Amino acid sequence: MILTIMISNIDILPGMSWENVSGWGLVNKSKSLVYYAKTLDDCIKVIQFAKANGLSLLSSGKGYTFGDMIINHQNIIVKTTKMDKIISWDKNTGNIIVEPGVMVADVLMKSLPYNWVLCSIPGGLEVTIGGAVSNNIHGKDSWKVGNFGDRVVSLKMVTASGEILSINKIENKQLFNAVIGGMGLFGIIIEITLQLQKVPSAYVEQKIIPTSNVQESIDLLEDAKNHADFSIAWVDAFSKGSKLGRGYVSMAKWVDEDIEIDQSRLVKSLTLSKKLFDMLPAKPSWALFRPFYKPSNMKFVNALIFTLNGMKYNSNSSYGNKLLFSEYNFMHNKIPDFNYVYYPYGFLEIEFLFPEKYGYKPIAECLTICQHLNCESMISAIKVHKKDNFYISFSSDGYSFTIDIPLRGRKINEVYKSMNEILNHSMKYDALVYLAKDEYLPKMIFNKMYPRYKEFLIIKNRIDPSGLFQSDMYRRLLQD
């Protein structure tokens, strides 16, 4: 078994250094040996170095995972962000082969001018393809096309032995289903082949409908399946009574017309902004906003957002407001570095996925519990999902719901007590918790939520018998 003690007097590799690392939620911070791999030889070299020095290893991308899945305390983190080449791109078939550090924005820059799109992606421009595979990410279209793993044709991975494995869903289905959503615990992914989806144009047309409560939002999300390609509901977590969970549903569908792309507009939509709403420098602005970013003020902001969207709504209007897909999907680009509003204390986020048979009820009850505990979520959303067959997969035919709790002005133990109550309640409804946003889930609850973890560990132990590839999450949830 790999040791997990810090060795400060070893001769480290050139380019390797001790760095403070945290998840995007900024809660748990840890010191690790960080190494930026550029080539396959670098990957093999760092594997050999880790084994020679009794250290564990974890590969990581840009670091947009929220919690301890991308932390490897006092051990090695291999950053693959410099392995960022697009190896091949076929505009006729939509087949693209990339290194793990290629970002979703890089793929779309190549594909959208030819009416090919990468499906099942979240609102983060700089999410890497390697990270997307390891987290089996999802998007506003996952109810229709599934999670990101369904985009993957094959991949190549370096294992603890230095062997390069070629993996696909036909020849080695079990390993394929374990590595996708496998949290980087099997090896270093060095190449991914993706199949993109052909679309009629690079543009979507959007429609936003205000809703009176969470039940109405769920009904609209279900109706959107009949005519939309994307959908998401924003939720006001502070509203109560008959208005519990009021908000709006945003839906979009592909424009069925081949519209020529404005290249400068495309580039802007796929370039991470450094300014808040294209006006204010992001990080300094978040520092100024921090004192005002608290529940009492966010209650007012949520009410204002609801009112403004209600004023814009026209019940007689159909879809309209044509946008590039990249403008629609990456709306967060208008608010870059948003996590810095929580600095330095961070925030805990939990994303549940409830089976559709329970309808709106578990979400409504979660909202009520949060209000009772005075830990209303500052921002909440509901998405619709589709079941897949990967071993550790945040997937089900159902509805996901997010709760985020800032730690500023709160005692961490009190927040954990509140989360325990919310978690225990969610178990009544067969909930899953998204591991990419987790850093708290107790092992016993994880075992119930993801019963296929036993099969997952059998495959890991076969591929990585010495336990070279680890993370803080692995040690918290999977290690005996």
- Give start-end ranges of low-pLDDT stretches: 1-6
Strand content: 15-25%
Total E-strand runs: 21
Computed over alpha carbons, the radius of gyration is: 22 Å
CATH class category name of the largest domain: Alpha Beta
Main pleated-sheet profile: 8 strands, antiparallel
Which strand order spans the largest sheet, edge to edge or round the barrel? 17-12-14-13-19-20-18-21
Number of domains: 3
Give the rounded overall mean pLDDT: 94
User: What's the helical proportion of residues?
Assistant: 25-40%
Could you explain the architecture of this structure?
With 480 residues, the protein is α+β, with helices and mostly antiparallel strands. It folds into three domains: 16-82 and 457-477, 2-Layer Sandwich (Uridine Diphospho-n-acetylenolpyruvylglucosamine Reductase, domain 2); 86-198, Uridine Diphospho-n-acetylenolpyruvylglucosamine Reductase, domain 3 (2-Layer Sandwich); 203-444, Alpha-Beta Plaits (2-Layer Sandwich), CATH 3.30.70. 29% of the residues lie in helices and 24% in strands. It contains 15 helices and 21 strands. The strands form five sheets. The chain has an eight-stranded antiparallel beta sheet, sandwiched between helices. The protein has a five-stranded antiparallel beta sheet with strand order 5-6-10-8-9. A four-stranded mixed beta sheet has the order 1-2-4-3, covered by helices on one side. Strand 15 and strand 16 (280-281) form a beta hairpin. Residues 1-6 have low confidence and may be disordered.
